[in-house]
Amino acid sequence: MRYMKEYEFIRDYLADRENLGFPHIVIVSGMTIYLTGEDTFEVKDNAVKWVLLEKWNQVGSLRMTYNDIMAVNDVTGWFEGNTDIVDFKEFRYFEGMDYVPGRCFAHCTSLRSILLTPNHNNYLGHGVWEYGFIAGGCYT
């Protein structure tokens, strides 16, 4: 018997969590995640965290939730040229975007790992990985 339910997108889990017996440990996009009652969005890479906190502080809040991240529909200019970002597996939760904007991660020379949602894989803007380590195709 399986105790953890699997979801392709975080939005599917959020829509279904009321129906689960133990709703806070799930598998989303093949990775096990733990969600607190408030569903606060956390990232491991400090450089990414600072970029996101800067954007959220502009709207008067330092707290990001999964719903906030899923509602983002454009990150143009947020990460371009940031040479400190190494790991951004949490990018897969930006489900509100139909594509990854052009030059989104251009000149991110330290970026070694990123996960895209399935809808991002087919729509990458021009120069997304330009002059970065991932330009060689090391992303999933």
Provide keyphrases for this structure.
140 residues; three-stranded mixed beta sheet; two-stranded parallel ribbon; 5 strands
- How much helicity do the residues have? 10-25%
**Main sheet: strands, sense, barrel:** 3 strands, mixed
Strand order of the largest sheet: 1-2-3
Number of E-state strands: 5
User: Are there runs of 5+ residues with pLDDT below 50, and where?
Assistant: 136-140
Contiguous helical run count: 4
* Portion in beta strands: 5-15%
**Secondary-structure class:** alpha/beta
Structural shape: globular
For the CA atoms, what is the radius of gyration?
Answer: 15 Å
Through-space gap between termini: 30 Å
What can you see in these coordinates?
- By secondary structure, the chain is an alpha/beta fold.
- It has a domain at 46-63 and 73-136.
- Helices cover 21% and strands 10% of the residues.
- It has a three-stranded mixed beta sheet. It has a two-stranded parallel sheet with strand order 4-5.
- It starts with 5 loop residues before the first strand and ends in a 19-residue tail after the last helix.
